[in-house]
Amino acid sequence: MTGSVGSTAAGEKPDGAEVPAEATTSGSWLALFAAWLIALGSTLGALFVGEVMGQVPCNLCWHQRAFMFPLAVILAIAAFRGDTSIWRYAFPIAVIGGLIAGFHGLIYLGVMPEAIEPCGQGPSCASADMTVLSGLPLPLLSFAAFALIATFLLLSRRPYRP
């Protein structure tokens, strides 16, 4: 490809590698797009709960945000470029965020002993303020979001073959 820096022809990656036409309409792209929608919804939801509803995030919520917010950005870029290879970089972020959310969920459910709870200062992880939409706990919603994102990223690894 010849042309200016930053411009690419349709079906071509910036490094010159061809992107198969079916990659942008296949199940792998749709899985990547679904992962982005979940990350975007989770990010906007976290911002709404914190900024509009006024719930102060606990320490573990901040850690989960540190893993969710970048996913919304990098998955958006990858989805709109048709770059399904992003799963290699986004999957570990989703897994680590999911582990933190799973740990947070265990604290919320009371499974973790009091001695190892990291939320001693600030808002309580077990309070009723940690629920939305008729009692859905935020830590478990976060875990579900990370798990779905990781699942969709695994599905996006290869082009869909009917």
UniProtKB/TrEMBL annotation:
Membrane topology, from the record: Multi-pass membrane protein
Compartments where found: Membrane
Keyword Acetylation found: no
InterPro entries: DiS_bond_form_DsbB/BdbC, Disulphide_bond_form_BdbC, DsbB-like_sf
Chain segments carrying region Disordered: 1-20
Transmembrane region(s): 29-50, 62-80, 89-111, 131-155
Entry keyword set: Chaperone, Disulfide bond, Electron transport, Membrane, Oxidoreductase, Plasmid, Redox-active center, Transmembrane, Transmembrane helix, Transport
Predominant location category: membrane
PANTHER family associated with the record: DISULFIDE FORMATION PROTEIN-RELATED, SPBETA PROPHAGE-DERIVED DISULFIDE BOND FORMATION PROTEIN B
Family: Belongs to the DsbB family. BdbC subfamily.
UniProt protein name: Disulfide bond formation protein B
Organism the protein comes from: Jiella pelagia
